[in-house]
User: Which sequence fits this backbone?
């Protein structure tokens, strides 16, 4: 940053619902917030209308890109501003969008903040020499890179960020939830995109093993299908395993309807193996609702869940391990209740909306040169050591 004058304006660029996913909800929180000494203006990304549209190409997206670029430049030319931008996930179409937008827009910004809601774009670009060369002006040397947790890929460091801030998500307090009715039936909840990378196939295999173990259970699925193919594979497998009466899709639920599902559940099942995972807001929702989560030992969940205290971590895609963990927790109500209480306590201490917005305000003020404090940066070695997701690349990810 050559000009050291304080900046009073922040241009927030990013997707807000719809479609609904963790990134769009986190950015929506920023657009509603007020930050001391800063004016914020939001330009909404509208490349995707549904989850099925995410990551795909259509001609209309070129017009959206041109419009977003021109509007951004017009705003940034009016006054010195911080550009807040969520870089693409590791998928080609969104990365190409970033290369065009950022190369044209960043010269007009007085400071740049990249918020890596989805992880892995740094490695994606580094593995493709032609992208690596093109990306230097687009991604190179942001003033601050924000990562979600210690296990997030070291994208900021790969792009030479001047500072790296670790800011976990936070969510609003849920409404007052009714106590679940006493029942001899285990109620499991899955919330998220209905994709194999989020573990929707593992849910069925876990259900099959629970039934063979003699556990009386029901599983509710809350979320959307990204495409017809995913749904067809799921329905075929559900019929093959004769699970239609115990595994029930509920569709996309928001607000009170979603929180009722949490209130009625004994635990959240989160068997993600999503390559770009950085946290999983649904885990925070379970913590806020005071129920334990049984999740994959995977980047994101491993940062939030204290294994054997607020939930249980299992090897990814290991349906037998998940079934054992769930059955053990189900048959020990005292331990399950203690985990739920500890999860709620951890939520209140670390993952409220107020804490998230407070940390984001400090970060934006630092980028605007209004504060002199700096952020501690997690070492790239530590992040790589804890990233157990391997080198898989997603094909359709949140924009």
Assistant:
């Amino acid at each position: 940053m050559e000009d050291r004058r304080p900046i009073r304006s922040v241009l927030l660029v990013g997707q807000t619902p719809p479609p609904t996913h963790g990134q769009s909800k986190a950015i929506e929180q920023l657009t509603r917030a007020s930050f001391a000494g800063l004016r914020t203006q939001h330009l909404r990304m509208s490349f995707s209308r549904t989850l099925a549209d995410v990551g795909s190409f259509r001609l209309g997206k070129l017009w959206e890109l041109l419009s977003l670029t021109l509007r951004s430049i017009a705003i940034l030319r009016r006054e010195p501003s911080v550009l807040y931008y969520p870089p693409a996930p590791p998928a080609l179409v969104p990365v190409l969008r970033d290369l065009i937008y950022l190369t044209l827009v960043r010269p007009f910004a007085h400071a740049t903040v990249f918020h890596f809601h989805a992880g892995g774009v740094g490695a994606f670009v580094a593995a493709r020499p032609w992208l690596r060369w093109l990306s230097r002006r687009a991604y190179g040397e942001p003033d601050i890179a924000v990562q979600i947790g210690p296990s997030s890929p070291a994208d900021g460091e790969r792009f030479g960020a001047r500072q790296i801030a670790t800011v976990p998500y936070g969510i609003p307090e849920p409404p007052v939830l009714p106590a679940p009715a006493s029942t001899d039936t285990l109620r499991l909840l899955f919330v998220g995109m209905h994709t194999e990378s989020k573990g929707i196939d593992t849910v069925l295999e876990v259900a099959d093993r629970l039934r063979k173990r003699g556990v009386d259970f029901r599983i509710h699925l809350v979320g959307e299908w990204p495409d017809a193919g995913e749904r067809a594979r799921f329905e075929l497998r559900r019929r093959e395993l004769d699970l239609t009466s115990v595994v029930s899709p509920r569709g996309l639920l928001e607000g009170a309807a979603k929180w009722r599902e949490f209130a009625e559940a004994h635990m959240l099942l989160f068997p993600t193996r999503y390559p770009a995972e950085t946290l999983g807001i649904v885990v925070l929702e379970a913590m806020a609702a005071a129920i334990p989560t049984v999740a994959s030992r995977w980047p994101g969940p491993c940062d939030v869940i204290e294994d054997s205290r607020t939930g249980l971590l299992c090897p990814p895609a290991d349906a037998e391990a998940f079934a054992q963990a769930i059955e053990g927790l189900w048959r020990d109500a005292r331990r399950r209740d203690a985990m739920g209480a500890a999860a709620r306590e951890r939520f209140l201490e670390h993952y409220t909306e107020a804490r998230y917005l407070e940390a984001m305000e400090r970060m934006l003020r630092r980028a605007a040169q209004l504060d002199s404090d700096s952020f501690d940066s997690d070492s790239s070695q530590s992040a790589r050591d804890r990233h157990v997701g391997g080198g898989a690349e997603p094909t359709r990810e949140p924009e």
